[in-house]
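How it folds
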Amino acid sequence: MRCPIKLNRNNFPQWFLRLVPNADDPRSLINMSAETKVFSRFVSPIKIGTTYKSTEPERHKLADRAILNVAKNLQTCPVVLDLGISDGTTSLELIEKLGNRFNKYFATDIYLSLPYLEHKGDGVFYHPQNHECIMRVSDRFIIYKATEKSISPIKALANHFIMTSPPYDIEKVQSLHLIHPQLRRLALEDNRIVLTEHDIMLEWQFDNPDIIKVANVLNLSYFSKEQIARAIANLKSSLKIGGHLFIVENRDIEKVSHFTKDKSGFCLNETINGGSEITDLVQ
């Protein structure tokens, strides 16, 4: 991240925001209502490790259409494993499209919540595992933990604010849900829908899926080829023989690679808009 300090979009005029890096205030998530249509907007600025929670509605139309075609042609209702759901908005959309045509729907991400506390009017956010401060939000600025690629003067300033933030205190921190409230509510009402944390680098421990969807996770910006190979091996071991793997990317346009699994491994079934950049690494 070259610029680890962004303006809080809530408190500057639009003409000025067009000139400098800015983001929505993720503190808006704390008291957001269950029916909100803007949840994704306020999740997207959150960055954990190297990954932003960037997402938006209707970004997987082509992938969902291909998944629906597969689900309709299966003899039994499938078990679906949705990996890397971000805030779950796209999971909600696919679940609605599937209707009753699924037996189980596992909606997963590596982290479903984020520890935070309020400190002198600021929101201070911590890594869910190591509890280091990763982000600090004031009415004016959104400050991230700087990286080696950050611009030097801004890097020093960002690190100052991060390092002077209060340490993680288990008795004071609260938990910020990163999953859309509608999906959380749906998972409580329908026992076929399961929300769970899962690291794609680890083996899947629950029901073997008939369909796996991996969206905007397995790319060379986040992982090395060796790490992607390990993730693919985990997917291969969990997917049923005859099952379907959909790898989705959203950059300029939506791209999809659709694989089927036979006894020898994955076979490319089709690509949409050229397919994923890691297509050759899967086969």
Notes: The helical segments are 14-17, 39-43, 61-73, 89-98, 152-163, 181-189, 225-238, 279-282. The two ends are 32 Å apart (CA to CA). The longest helix spans residues 225-238. Residues 5-31+114-175 form one domain.
